[in-house]
Design brief:
By secondary structure, this protein is of the alpha/beta class. The chain has helices at residues 14-22, 56-61, 68-79, 106-123, 132-140, 146-149, 167-172, 177-192; strands at 40-41, 47-51, 88-92, 127-131, 153-156, 159-164. It binds uracil (URA).
Length: 194
């Protein structure tokens, strides 16, 4: 792990992590973002859900998934008996909003990676749900499309990881909701069998 050997102290506590994200200038997004968006929810959650990056509303409110995609995400969670903040922690690959909602660039993903790794180390989730291409490809270190990565159980540092479509994509392509539902059921089943 890039966090160091198992014998080393954790790189961050929640307090130092929040402080680091709030004051981060590790990439160019710090020049245009309103605020860093660390994540929200249960810090002891079994479920860690990882999106792409804060949008305009998330940048303004300082919380992930508060816009339209977030509403669909909430419905997706409810469909498998979950709700925001209850055994669920939500975050993004990027903690800063990319201007115009453009795709994250590789240097930005790399600069933010220590924060995501620290969150995984602190939360120690039982399962990771990766939403969309950026989360899936960066965590699994692959160029494979979401359509190929979804529908099976991967692992990230020994933690089961399920990939599904990003809710913002599902808003544009609602016919894919059936496949997302399959992925959510797979994730729920995987959690139940742990
Ligand atoms: N899309 C994301 O990937 N994350 C958010 O927080 C909001 C929209």
């Amino acid at each position: 792990s890039t966090l160091g050997s198992p014998l080393s102290a954790p790189a961050y506590t929640w307090d130092t992590l929040a402080e680091a994200v709030a004051h981060c200038s590790a990439c160019k997004l710090s020049a245009t973002r309103t605020q860093g968006v660390l994540g929200v929810g249960d810090r002891n959650a079994d479920w860690l859900i990882i999106g792409e990056a804060p949008g305009v509303e998330e940048d303004a409110q300082g919380e992930p998934f508060v816009g339209q995609a977030g509403k669909l995400l909430d419905a997706m969670l409810v469909s498998i008996g979950l709700k925001r903040g209850n055994n669920v922690y939500l975050t993004n690959v990027l903690k800063s909003h990319p201007p115009g909602n453009r795709n994250p660039e590789p240097d930005e993903v790399a600069a933010c990676r220590p924060y995501l790794l620290a969150q995984i180390e602190l939360i120690q989730p039982k399962l990771i749900l990766a939403l969309g291409r950026v989360a899936a490809q960066s965590l699994l270190d692959t160029d494979e499309a979401v359509g190929h990565l979804r529908g099976r159980v991967h692992a990230f540092q020994g933690v089961p990881l399920v990939v599904t479509y990003h809710p913002a994509y599902l808003l544009r392509k609602p016919t894919e909701k059936a496949r997302a539902w399959e992925d959510l059921c797979l994730a729920r089943r995987t959690m139940q069998n742990l």
